[in-house]
Structure formats: C-alpha cells, structure tokens
Amino acid sequence: MERARAGQAPGKVRSLMSTGTALGRARDAARGVAWFFKGVMGENAYAAYLEHHEASHCSEPPMTERQFWRDRTDRQDANPEGRCC
Amino acid sequence: MSEKHNGAHGHKGVLVTDPDLPPTAIDPAVADAEDRRWTPAKIAIWLGIALLGGIAWVMLAIVRGETVNAIWFVFAAVSTYLIAYRFYSKFIERKLLQPDDRRATPAEYKADGKDYVATDRRVLYGHHFAAIAGAGPLVGPVLAAQMGYLPGTLWIIVGVILAGAVQDYLVMFFSMRRGGRSLGQMAREELGVIGGTAALLATLTIMIIIVAILALVVVNALGESPWGVFSVSMTIPIALFMGVYLRFIRPGKVTEVSLIGFALLMLAIVAGGWIAETEWGVALFTLDRVTIAWGIIIYGFIAAVLPVWLLLAPRDYLSTFMKIGTIVLLAVAIIITRPEISVPAISEFAATGTGPVVPGPLFPFLFVTIACGALSGFHALISSGTTPKLIEKERQARFIGYGGMLMESFVAIMALVAALSIDRGIYFAMNTSAAATGGTVEGAVAFVNGLGLTGVNLAPEALTSLAGNVGEESIVSRTGGAPTLAVGIAQIMQGLFGGSGAMAFWYHFAIMFEALFILTAVDAGTRVARFMLQDSIGNFIPRFRDTSWRVGAWVCTAIMVAGWGAILIMGVTDPLGGINTLFPLFGIANQLLAAIALAVCMAICAKKGAFKYLWIPALPLAFAAVVTISASFLKIFSPVPAIGYWAQHNAFKDALAAGEESFGNAPTVEAMEKVVTNTFIQGTLSIVFVTLAIIVIITAILATIRAYRNGGGDETEDAPVPSRIYAPAGLIPTPPEKELEAKWNALGPVKRPARSGH
After folding, report:
1. Model confidence over B260-277: pLDDT tens digits?
2. B506: which residues sit within 8 A by CB, 6+ positions away?
3. What percent of chain B stands above pLDDT 90?
4. Rounded distance, CA B303 to CA A77, Å?
5. pLDDT of residue B756
6. Is B602:B614 a contact under the CB 8 Å cutoff?
7. Number of folded domains in chain B?
8. Most A CBs within 10 Å: which of B124, B132, B208, B254, as the mutation test of the A interface?
9. Strands (E), B366-429
10. Does A52 touch chain B (CB under 8 A)?
C-alpha cells in the first residue's frame, strides 16, 4: 500500500479514496487543510526524514521518532534560523 | 525526449536527464505556448482583475469623499499583486533568471532528510511566509499613517512589486543556485574581501539596532499595563511547558502541542483581565518601562544561551500558529466589517515633515518608516540559507520568493487599514511621545487639538472611555505602533465577535501576538548575531569558531545583548520620546540591508552577463540607495533639530554651555545631558551604517563595471546536476503540468527514483 510522500500533497491517496460525493470531497478538503497546516508547522519533518532514509537505501536503521526530534533541535542549537521582524 | 531542449534552456547541453524517467521539466516551448494562449475566459478574468484594481485605485487616489471604504484598499492591493505576479515576476523569470527544472535543486542533490528536504511548494510558501513576516509590517504602516492613507498605500504596493518581492526572489534564486549559501557568503564571493567584510559588519550592526527597536516596541506596549505584562510573561512558562512536552512526553506532535499552547495562551489573556482587576495583581504587574526593558534584556540573554528545544523552538511553533491564524482572521474581519476611513489621503505632515509620530517629510522618511511590507532587507537573510535548501524545483522560486513577499505586503496593508480606522485625534494622542503630551489626558487633548488638523476635535472623554474599553489605565502616548494597531484590531474584531464588551480581550490578544512575534525575533536575532560574531572573531581567535564552546558562546551572546540592550535602555529613557527618534534608524538600517542585498544581486547578474536586464535589480537598488543615503544624510547633516541627530546634539550642548536648566522637551539638566549622549550615539550609528552601505554599493558597482568590460565574470553557481523529480511551479498547475505530473504519479513507488543525492 502506498503511503503519501511526506513532502507531497495527499493527492494520490485522495484520488484512490475520493468517492466524488459531497461528503467525500469535504473529507478530502479537511485532510488537505490538515496536511498543509502540519507541513507549515513542520510536523511532517520526521516522515520526510524516513522517506529520505528509505529512498537512500542506507544500511543503518533510521533514527526513532524521539531520536530524530532531539537531533533536530540539537542541530538547531548550532545552526540558528533567523526570524524576521 | 528532454535532450533536445537542452539548448533552449540556455545551458550548454551538460544536463542529460534519465531517459527511463518522464521529463523533469515542462518543455519550454510548451510552457511558453501555455503562457501565450489567451482563451476568452482567461482574457475575461484578467480584464476583470485589471478593472477592479483600476476602480479601487480611482476610489483611493482620485475620488475624494468624506470617507473611503477599507474594502478599496483590499481590492487595489490584491488586483495589483495578481497582475504584478502574473506579468512582472514572469518577466523576471523569463528574461533574467531563466530557471531550469532539469537542474536538481540543493534540496534534491544535497538531500539529507534534515536540512535539505524537497518540500511541497504550497507548504514551503506557508513556511517561508511564517519566517519572513513578523511585527515589522504591523508597526511601520501604523506610524506612517500620520502622512495620510495614500502615500503609505502607494509605497507598500508599488514598493513590493518593484523592489521588495524582486529582492526576495533574486536572493532566493541565487542562493538556491549556490547550494543555499547565505547572503554574507555570496557578498564575499561576489564583492571580494572589502565589500564582503563591510556587508558582514553592516549586517551585524543592523541586526543589533533592529532587535533593539523591536524590543522597544514591546516595552512601550507593556509599560504600565498589568494585563499586558501578565499575559505576555505567561508565554514563557507556556513555551517551557511545550518544550518539555515535545522533548519528553510526545516528541514530534507539533500541531497537538501548539493547540494546547494556544489554548493556554487564550487563558493567559483572559486571566490577565482578572488579574488586572485585583489589587495585588496591579501592584505586582504594573511595571515601569525601564524595569520591563531590563526584564527583556535578561530574558534575551537567557533565551539565547538555553538549548533551542526548551524555549526557542516551542515559542516559534506558537508564533507560527498565531501568525497564520490571526492574519487570516484579520483579513476576514476587514472584508466583512469594511470599516469607513476618514483620514485624509495626504495629510499636512507629508509636506511639512513636522508630524509628531516620526519626524521628517514624506521623502525620504515615508520610505524608511515603512520598511517591512514594501522592501525589507532582513528578508535577504531568510531568503538565502534556510528556504533555498527546501525548494523542490527551480521554477518554484517565483511562487515562494516573489509570491511570499506579496503576502507580507498584504499584511502591511491590513495593518495600515486597522490604524486608519481609528479616530484621528485618538491616533495622535496615542502616538505622540510623552515628552509632548506629558502623558496625561489633558496634555494629550491640548496637544492634539493644538495641531490644527481639520476635522479633529478630541474630547477627553474619548480617551478615557477608550482606555476603559480596552482595559488599560490610559492610552495616552502609547507609542511604538503596537498599541495603536491593537486598538484598530480590537475595533474591527469586536464588530465581528463579541461587541464592545470584547474590545479589551481583542486589544490584549493583538498586543500578545505582536509581543510574541517580536520576542521570537529577539531570541532568534540574538542567536543568529551571536553566531555571526563568533565566526568573525574566529578569524582572529580560532577557538571562537567552535560554537559548542560554552565560554565563547556566552561571551558573544553577552556582547550582542549588551549592544541591543544599551540601545533599548537609551530608547526607553530618552527624554525626547524614544520611538520617534529611533524608529527612522530601524527603517534606514533595514533598507540599507536591502541595498546591500540588491547590490550583491546586481553584481551576480552582471557576472552572468545579463546586462540587458540589469535594471531589474538596479532600479530598486538605486531607489533604496537614494532613499537611505539621503535619509541618513538628513539624520546626520540636517540643521533642523527634530530631524538631524547632530543638530539636536549641538542644540542641547549649546544650551548646557549657556547654563540653561531646561531646553525643549527636556525639563532638567540631567535630561539635557542624556539627550546629548543619545543623539551622539544615534548620530554615530547613522554614520557607521551609511558608510558601510556605501562601501558595499561601490564595490558592487565596481564588480558590475568589471563584469561589463569582460562581458561577464566568474561562474559562482554550483555545477548543474540533472534532476530526477518533478513538481509543478505555481500554486495551481497548468494543463501541461498536470499532464506531466500524472505521468510521474503513474510511475508507482517502485520505479520512482530515490529523492536523495547520495
């Protein structure tokens, strides 16, 4: 079963599930909004990392979710991102 | 299939894409044909947009009724943005930048799943917008409203399409072609050691002044406001809780924790109202401005040395959450309530330059008062570095870079509308410094009515009843822009939710989100500046380069905090008012950074050999340079004490020498001495900024001339790598893009190539 790519719109999943009814469309729209919002907040970062890890055929096991988020904030310690005025 | 287009992209045929995959780019001929295919429906839509925009501009600029409806601002802005985006940014793309989707972006060829991640364009748009938009576009337009509504509106809209969005787009594109290099690195590479060092020094000092003045805005909003102090302080424990939650309890549940944080934040705002009504609450949380300033300085230091996960990251989530929510809410509210605006199109102060909010005539001071929203140099720091590492396809840079800045400009327009919807008398009572109003209702009424503005007759009851409605002791001389905007937002929002009883909530809600944006910028700015300083000192003492070395980190943080802290304290205790003397420095600094960024872009374009279209960066560069250099020169050389720092400096010095005990707005000898010191620092900073910026601009012009003589220059782009992924360029895919996307989707997960570079 294909998982929607983390960095990508849930378009493919949508096309499989969409029944074309008004309810189905509303559900798709809600899912789209949730996907967008999580993306902007950065929640998809771990999924994107896993996808990258899988695609790069790396032999080492990927970091667990907990390890990943720790690593992420610890790297931000050394590489601060600016925030604008 | 794609090989035959190699030449058409202008790349020497080095890019050979995988023949087993669908094309990684739309055939340029097809894309061109699509752009030039004008169906009747398309023509009708664009005619409609142009017509609506035209009518809106006529309503704003020519029809002079008693009032003008706010909806015209929205129509004028949105139609102009759409036309500029569709035609001008496309022109820049086609003629100057020539993106090539067959080239992999850094997010693809450097993919690491962490910093370099190909991100969906729509998500990245939101992400980039959240990074560039903060309190800046909310504050500047409010202060510029003293000149009337038209100058600010024109500059925000025309400025963004010809300057601000161009800068963001160019910097983003050039950084993307260079593996996500920062502006400082590009400046060094393109302009050499002198230009590069001057750019670095300018960036560092500019960051100090920007952080200081943003902090000053917060201090002014919270001074003598127990409600505000309580609810804004509560953001610290809320952020700490969120940090611990994300680290130890439920890692990665960002949306969930943001929702919890948001709920707690709302509770903090409501609770602030309860506390401000108790005696102990008032006693505990009524703080004078100097105390609050010290609080922010200490907080800034601690926040910059604490681990990111504990305070900075969760605060950033909260800030992003609020940003998106509030801006959508405000847009909806303005469209539904459509307030009538009775401010004149161009006020008396535009020409005379004697406005009490920020001194100086329209040219050049309008263009430095409104920086963010029209042209913001600070964006160059975000558009290089962070965002380019996440762009999936080259052609998306137009949507994210140019389009992202248009959205910020729209935020500035909404802030302007909110400020304009306030009664003019109240606007001036709030924004005139306490040095002129005495900080009392009587003083403010006397001062405002003494300004002789047509149609302005301020009654004391208007000030006291508004203060009561928003839950504050007084609203006189709440300078800095944030309280004015909060009153404007409260007036608009109460029309939609809750009625006048909810004004106090909305006022403090607005103060809260502005404070949240600013404190996030203060934390992040201090941290970024600290790393820049460590890197610079590292040239002489290599140990400082090691950013995990505690002593170095603490020393550099302390230096940075001391830098902005000193300016903050100076602004808070300034006998002449603070914001009105310092804000021009903020705008000048920000625009000088823009001039530096545009100068670097111009040099890059020249080295590419794109002389025919060099005017695209050169035009906004010339404008920014003329504006900021003339504003700086006025600040340095103007004989008018209200405008020139040195004129003020000398006037007070002479008065002291003459043995006078009070002078101008300074009632004591001590205050006079303070003015002498403050103006000395402000004047010196002006000289430093303008000198550094002139050095950078001259080195860029020299690099451009050299490139012209040689017919181009060294290639500083990373070597092209063929792409193995595809995604559409804009928000809505065109029919050929949809077709190609379908081909890629049909590949299935097995055949779809790895999105990584190693």
Report:
1. 999 999 999 999 999 999
2. B486, B489, B490, B493, B494, B497, B498
3. 80
4. 12
5. 41
6. yes
7. 1
8. B254
9. none
10. yes
The residues, ordered by sequence, that sit 6+ positions from B207 with a Cβ below 8 Å of its Cβ are B525, B528, B529, B532
Q: Is residue B9 assigned to a domain?
A: yes
Question: In terms of residue numbers, what domain contains B24?
Answer: 3-36+731-751
Cα separation, B474 vs B461, whole angstroms: 12
pLDDT exceeds cutoff 90 at B20: no
Interface A-B: count of C-beta contacts within 8 A: 160
Residues 6+ apart with CB under 8 A from B177: B717, B718
ipTM: 0.85
pLDDT bin (cut points 50, 70, 90) of residue B242 is: very high
Residue B391 pairs in a beta bridge with: B119
Q: Is A65 on the interface with B (CB under 8 A)?
A: yes
* Both tokens assigned to B162: 């010809």
Residue B440 burial class via C-beta count within 10 angstroms: exposed 0-12, middle 13-18, buried 19 and up: middle
Contacts of B292 (CB under 8 A, 6+ apart): B218, B219, B222, B223, B229
Query: Does the residue B747 lie in any domain?
Result: yes
Closest residue in B to A2 (Cα) is B749
Cα separation of the two ends of chain B: 26
pLDDT average, residue stretch B407-422: 95
Name which of B213, B214, B489 is nearest B327 in CA terms: B489
Verify whether the Cβ–Cβ distance A41 to B376 is below 8 Å: no
B742 part of a folded domain: yes
Average pLDDT over residues B329-346: 92
- Cβ–Cβ below 8 Å for A73 and B308: yes
Could you list the beta-strand ranges (E) of B77-175. Answer: none
Q: Categorize the per-residue pLDDT at B13 as very low, low, confident or very high, splitting at 50, 70 and 90.
A: low
Mean of the per-residue pLDDT values for chain B? 92
Residue B469 lies inside a defined structural domain of this protein: no
Beta carbons of B251 and A66 less than 8 Å apart: yes
